[in-house]
Amino acid sequence: MLLAFSLSPSAGDDAGGVSEAVAAAIRVVRESGLPCETNAMFTNVEGEWDEVMAVVKQAVDVVAASSPRVGLVIKADIRPGRSGQLTAKVDRIEERLAEL
Q1: Contact at 8 Å (CB) between 1 and 81?
Q2: Which of 49, 62, 63, 70 falls 20 to 30 Å from 18 in CA-CA distance?
Q3: Angle at 66 between CA 11 and CA 71, to 5 degrees
Q4: Residue 41: its pLDDT value, please?
Q5: DSSP states along 27-49
Q6: Are the C-beta atoms of residues 4 and 89 closer than 8 Å to each other?
Q7: Which domains does the chain have, with CATH numbers?
Q8: Can you say whether the dihedral through the CA atoms of 25, 31, 37, 39 is positive or negative?
Q9: Predicted pLDDT at 13
Q10: Rounded to the nearest 5 degrees, what angle is found at the Cα of 66, between the Cα atoms of 55 and 45?
Q11: Overall pTM surpassing 0.90 (yes/no)
């Protein structure tokens, strides 16, 4: 399973920033040991359903510890029997682009 998720704390620091809470959530994902990447909008993580969802829950819990409300957006690609798709999907597109 590939899963992209984004967390939005409802409360920020004194300047309205949420980077500290978001960084804590990303730390949870990176320390999970699952293949992952972070971009400007989402954190992508790859693994089995239960392990990926457990990591997302832990990330939400970390953000919820500093914010009374957390928004969560999830998009998943569920394709049993596949692994390494975090990079393989992009590689396939790059190969197609090179053919053009």
Answers
A1: no
A2: 49
A3: 55
A4: 93
A5: HHHHHTTS-EEE-SS-EEEES-H
A6: no
A7: 2-99 (3.30.70.930)
A8: positive
A9: 59
A10: 20
A11: no
Residue 70 to residue 54: CA distance in whole angstroms: 16
Q: Which tokens hold the place of 5?
A: 């998720």
Cβ(70)–Cβ(60) below 8 Å: yes
Packing angle of the helix pair 49-64, 19-31 (nearest 10 deg):
150
Greater pLDDT, 37 or 9: 37
Rg of the chain (C-alpha set): 15
The 10 Å CB-count burial string (b at 16+, else e) for 32-60 is bebebeeeeebbbbbbeeeebbebbeebb
Angle at 76 between CA 79 and CA 99, to 5 degrees: 70
